[in-house]
Specification:
It is built from seven helices and 22 strands. The protein is α+β, with helices and mostly antiparallel strands and about 375 residues long. The strands form five sheets. A ten-stranded mixed beta sheet has the order 1-2-5-3-8-12-10-11-14-22, sandwiched between helices. The chain has a four-stranded antiparallel beta sheet with strand order 9-19-21-15, with no helix packed on it. Helix 1 crosses helix 7 and helix 3 runs antiparallel to helix 4. The radius of gyration is 22 Å and the shape is globular.
Length: about 375
């Protein structure tokens, strides 16, 4: 049985002097297998990942764990406690307005330094040196910033410090009202088939501040830098954002299914030694990030969402209809919304009350099967 160690990571302080702490669970691998870091709830309302981490910890008790596993629920203690009435608002730092998942760090100059100093070094030495420099860079951001850090940056950097020590990183999220989907780096497309998730967004190596990008972009760009001088190196580093459905809800039964999906991937990557998990035989659709489109409401009103998540919607079929009672009797009270291309609806706005210009849906366009 795998032993779970727990510690509390202090990530900040409130005005009252109370410490902001995050629970960190660690399982030491029996061998020198690949390591993994899994976090949940960086956005306050996106709580299902905490239930998945609970189920992972329960399942891992009976698994042979080869590589170190670190699991962090409640990764953002400010966001998950940021309530307004019955709703959790914690998507943005209430002080700065910045998205909590856009505060992670990537210093691209480290790539040039490692390339110059280790142009002919063995791959394991390159991996070790590059990883240590990224860790040192984050430590310097935390400990030697003379003008200080925002609350969000301090939380992000301490989480990233843990993530940089792993080979594989999973950041667990949810959408507003959403189907399950996966953000996957383009080079790791083969791994997407080991998650029991039917929709995959393939993303490029453009860093925009998210956790997954902060942990895969450096390795991808390093491999590209070596490729330019004729060395094809596979560092076996992957990171994903795993979208587990809709926010503000947990379902422990569904979380068990999601945890088994994650263990299927970890078994494939030899983090655990098991034959218990097989990827489901499902149709997996994918599109590139540029083809993952936002559809904004052309008018204000009360929206009745019609399209079924995850199923192809033919051109001209209705996504939704908008009720405009102010037009009843002297105009059109119902307005049907359609698109002129085939799409797969993935998520939609959480409220039925929308303004003109509200992000109504996110959809796959130019999609294909994996």
């Amino acid at each position: 049985m795998s032993k779970v160690n727990k510690q509390l990571l202090t990530v900040g302080e409130l005005a009252s002097g109370v410490s902001l702490t995050v629970p960190v669970y660690h399982i030491k691998g029996e061998q020198a297998g690949p390591s993994v870091y899994i976090q949940a709830n960086i956005h306050g309302a996106e709580v299902q990942g905490n239930a998945v981490i609970y189920q992972l910890l329960e399942l891992l008790k009976s698994q042979r764990v080869l590589g170190d596993i670190t699991l962090v629920p409640y990764a953002n203690p400010v966001g998950c406690n940021h309530k307004n009435g019955e709703y959790t608002l914690g998507r943005f730092d209430p002080i700065t307005g910045v998205n909590w998942n856009r505060m992670f760090h990537f210093n691209e100059s480290i790539i040039d330094d490692v390339l110059a100093e280790h142009i002919d070094s063995p791959i394991e030495e390159i991996k070790s040196q590059f990883q240590q420099r990224m860790i040192t860079d984050i430590i310097n951001k935390l400990d030697h910033n003379i003008y200080g850090l925002t609350t969000g940056s301090r939380i992000a950097y301490q989480l990233q410090l843990l993530a940089h020590q792993a080979d594989f990183v999973l950041d667990l999220h949810t959408g507003p009202i959403s189907s399950k989907h996966l953000y996957c780096p383009e080079y790791a497309q083969a791994s997407a088939s080991y998650f029991n998730i039917p929709h995959t967004i393939l993303i490029p190596d453009d860093f925009a501040g998210a956790m997954d990008e902060a942990t895969f972009c450096p390795w991808w760009k390093l491999s590209k830098a070596f490729a330019k001088i004729g060395r094809q190196l596979d560092f076996n580093k992957e990171s994903f954002t795993v979208e587990l459905g809709s926010q503000e809800l947990i379902d422990l039964d569904v979380a068990l299914v999601d945890a088994q999906s994650i263990l299927t991937y970890l078994q494939y990557k030899q983090v655990i030694e098991s034959g218990d998990f097989e990827p489901e035989k499902i149709t997996r659709y994918a599109c590139y990030l540029k083809d993952y489109r936002q559809y904004y409401s052309p008018m204000g009103g009360m929206v009745d969402f019609l399209a079924t998540f995850g199923e192809p919607l033919k051109s001209g079929q209705p996504l939704a209809r908008i009720l405009r009672m102010d037009n009843y009797g002297d105009g059109n009270a119902l307005h049907y919304l359609t698109l002129d291309e085939d799409v797969i609806p993935i998520l939609h706005f959480a409220s039925a009350s929308v303004n003109q210009g509200t992000e109504l849906y996110k959809v796959f366009t130019n999609y294909f099967t994996l």
